[in-house]
## 1
Amino acid sequence: MEERHKKILKKKYKDLTRDLRPDDIMDHLIQEDVFDFNDIELVRAQKVNQLQVEKLLSILLTRGPRAFGVFLESIEERYPWLHKDLKKADEESARQPQQPAPKQDENTSTSDARQPFQETEKPSPNQPLIPEEQTCVKRPPQPGTQTREKAVVQGTAGGSEPPLTDEEKVTRKMGNMQLSNQHTRFEVPPKVDSNRVTEKQLNALAGKLGHEWENLAIHLDLSKADVDRFKADNPYNTRSQIFSMLMAWRARRGGAATVGTLIRSLEDFGVGLDLKFLTQTS
């Protein structure tokens, strides 16, 4: 993706995280080969819509030059106000003239180009050679200037840093989002790893999960129709909906529905729970 397109997305970050729903556009991103199914799982693994948009944008920024145009196509129908703002910003940035790099003589280095030319006085044949370090005269520091080392020390001692701009904050946050799925896996004790998960364990898990359970169901290879059925069967009890979903997963996996398999699937999804309770046999 071009640098100017990255800047546009970062400047519109607040509007995108407020208005956009990733599920509305991800089919188009897959169809145009900008996203793959692993990207979709990473986005849907986030628990709230804002985090899903942040994850989507962090992935989008790493894609090729077509990504911005495909993203505009994906929001044109459902989000015309966002499409209009982004397209206008793109047209304005395209009209801005590119600043050419300053030319310099081919035989002049970058550091030499910043220094005035001084003719070196040739030593007299009878004049003894003087070591170079003794002939160099140190220039006194100019008023209002300081060395880089001194500036760093003073900045550290003062304990203050220049405030980040909104764009820098967004850049840092998106960079951190790319590391959000890296974590240490919980070690499942070998004695329970291959044990088939029990109804008691699934019931306990159902009591700990929240509104993210619908996305978890998709992660566990259940369908949207399955989710709708669980909700219709238990319209007033969320825990019962979640328990029905977990039991359906257990029935479909059969003997492969083990404690170890469940824990690893939950970790891959990004459930922020202490999963140790699933390893307790009593």
## 2
Amino acid sequence: KVTKDDLFHMNFIRFPSAERRLIRTVGVRKKMTINAGYSKSTDVTCAEIPFYSPFGELSLVLLMPGKQKDFVANGLAKLEAGLDVEKWGRVLRSMLPNTVNFQMPVFKHKSLQNYSEILADIGLGDLFQKNKADFSGITGVKSLHLADIVQLTEFKS
């Protein structure tokens, strides 16, 4: 569990900017035992951060191109382009329990996805049409149809 004592101010380089200036942000620092490692064959440093989930085990796997102290120019683009199932397996197998002084910025991400068009494209468009949808087996109401199918995802570190 993260406490206020684990929070601190840290600086990060803002890469999308041409100036590559340092940005001050709040981060979290904690000494913890996690699965972490370096995969030499894929040149990736990785760490698995466990999360509490009422649905069972859930974790965030963080990948960083190169070794822990190295900066790899265009490393993320190269990593994304070359990552396949076999390499992903090698990365996961490279992690072992390690006690580390882990630090990362505190962040929040929220996204809303509408899947109605995708479902219509794969042949489920009738679900959204008042005269064609048939959910009478669920509610007994024949005129019931879906307006949209959306997914809201929120993630906080």
## 3
Amino acid sequence: MRKILILLGPPGAGKGTVGKKLSENWNIPLISSGDILRENVKKETHLGKKAKEYMEKGELVPDSIVTEVIKERIKMDDCKNGFILDGYPRNRKQAEILDGILENDNKLLAVNLVADDEFLVKRLANRRVCEKCGAIYHLINMPPKKPGICDICGGKLIQREDDKEEIIRNRLKVYKKETAPLLNYYKEKGVLKEVRGDQELEKT
């Protein structure tokens, strides 16, 4: 039986960090819709060009685009024992589409990471990413040894466009509106668990 974990929660709640840890512990891949979309934007693929218009405004990328990239990814061999999804599904419609894609022999759990808006804004606005290798730093909690330089590859650290305060607040607003019905969907199915995302990783 495949183990499928869906990580839910607003931007900055720690889905990527928690997902990475669980991926290592369970030896199944962490699939981040955001990472896949950013990769497509970087490579200027057909889907990447479409997604870029929405991502730069802090708006949700349309279901059809996100579903297409996720569908292709979960068909890969490394997903045969299970996988962890971060950033997908984002709404009830996507969840229903995902149910249609998945076979019956799956053990599915949805975990919702919750945190206060001000905590999330502070966490995200201080995040920096290496433009070369994608390593993530935090100016307060996990700063690089040399300011502005990646410890791993020496690349330049940048602030993602969607980590600027005005865009973060818009992302949080969009998230709440879009995701409430999704949480109810998994609650009705009896597979939703709620965890505080503003605690230490070990506690989470």
